[in-house]
Amino acid sequence: MTNYPEMGLINVTTSKLYGAASNPWNKNDNPGGSSGGAAASAADGMVPLAGGNDAGGSIRIPASWTGLIGLKPTQGIITGDGSSIGAVNFAETKTMQDTNSLFESMLNPSKASQVPAAPTDLKGMTIAYTTKSPVGTPVSDDAVQAVQNAVSFLKSQGFNMVEVDSPVDGVKLMQTYFMSATSSGSTANFLINQKTKSNMTFDQVSPVTWALYQASLKLPANARTTYTNELALIDQQMTAFHQKYPLYLTPTTATTAPSNDDPAFLPEYVDQLKNIGSLDSPQQLQLIYDAWLHGLTKTPFTQLANFAGEPAISLPTYVSPSSGMPLGIQLEAGKNQDRLLLKMGDLFESHGLFKELSHQTPTPTPTPTPVNPTPNTPSSSSSSAISVSTSSSTPKSPVTPNYASTQPFIAYTLKKVYLYNQPTLLKMVGLRFIAKHLARIDQCSK
């Protein structure tokens, strides 16, 4: 279990219990939410992949902001997932091989026949794309460039690229999304009541949890009908859309990761949310929308796939040249076309277009001239270095490195490595080595 926001509600990871999570690319930034702790763990190499769930972008947003692959499968095809619109369980991953393997192993056997194989030849397929925010908010130059790069690549691969706006009213979708999220507020109050025998107070929870609970108390009687009708309309619109455009390309997020100093909700709205109980239902829902817009502006592209029940995948294809932070592109397909998305991920990865944290090369430090260290002398052991000469000049007597140290040498690899092909590594395994010269091995070639 890693850090995540209260009730998994927001697009950054911060909580009363553990505070804000840090992004491995820049510890001053957030990894996103709600599965932000999971993404940070996978991006930093603590684990090869990490589970998450996605009801509005909670897998794909952290994937975009930490340089990972984030798949949200079709609603209801993963074992254990329900068919009604809601959270979909999967993971944030680093390779398409892992993504494919995990998808096939988690696919509900009773639904497998509904998920066709991807076409053998994708050339000539039409892909719609846009960089326009569905809620009319600004989109960063980085997000636009990430999509433009992808469009250029896909054109070179024989795809027909067409710029098309979303067929769904994004503002209306989000208003419906926030109305449905009031159930999280009532659930939180139920849990608190079970433990304390009292209803929640504002100070016990995040401002948005409090606001959603208060709004749940005043929802109109026709709220369920309104919600159901909006889902039906979105399904109709996206079904027609995918008949013309099998794939829909957007930025995953409109910006790179926000700073941990950037609040999820602006202070002026926090005060208003505290007193939301005095408003009527339409006013409450409008205030929630207005308060949430500061965060939504950064991530307006992900919620459509959830409400349409469609699969979508975030691919780590872009790093901002100005901030050095990643930003993903998102591909969305029609229901049950998950394997088409996986094949598209394979295409980008096979052309070397993924830009994950493990691929970033640190600035090399100058290597001191190797010397013969004096055994058991602390000063000499701390300044010794290992050097591999590639010069064709007259061979010199080999220099034996000094492995004497009080710290153990620990090596780990994120890919398969054959030790018999790594003689230097093989010599080191089992020996004690100076930590300052080799803190860890992040990745070894096959």
SSE layout and pairing:
Layout: E1 14-15, E2 19-20, H1 36-43, E3 50-54, H2 60-66, E4 69-72, E5 88-93, H3 96-106, E6 126-129, H4 141-156, E7 160-163, H5 170-196, H6 207-216, H7 223-244, E8 247-251, H8 267-274, H9 281-296, H10 303-308, E9 312-319, E10 326-333, H11 338-350, H12 378-383, H13 423-428
Parallel strand pairs: 6-7, 6-8
Antiparallel strand pairs: 1-2, 3-5, 4-5, 4-9, 8-10, 9-10
Written account of the structure:
- Helix 3 runs antiparallel to helix 11 (338-350) and helix 8 (267-274) runs antiparallel to helix 9.
- This protein is globular.
- Mean pLDDT is 86; it is low at 359-365, 367-409 and 423-446.
- 35% of the residues lie in helices and 11% in strands.
- 42% of the residues are buried.
- With 446 residues, it is an alpha+beta fold.
Global structural class = alpha+beta
**Quick check: average pLDDT?**
86
Q: Strand percentage, roughly?
A: 5-15%
Share of helix, binned? 25-40%
Largest sheet: 8 strands, mixed
**H/E series, N to C?**
EEHEHEEHEHEHHHEHHHEEHHH
Number of strands: 10
Termini separation comes to 31 Å
Oligomer: single chain
Biggest sheet strand line-up:
3-5-4-9-10-8-6-7
Please tally the helical runs, counting DSSP H or I stretches of 4 or more residues.
13
The shape is globular
Radius of gyration: 25 Å
Uncertain stretches:
359-365, 367-409, 423-446
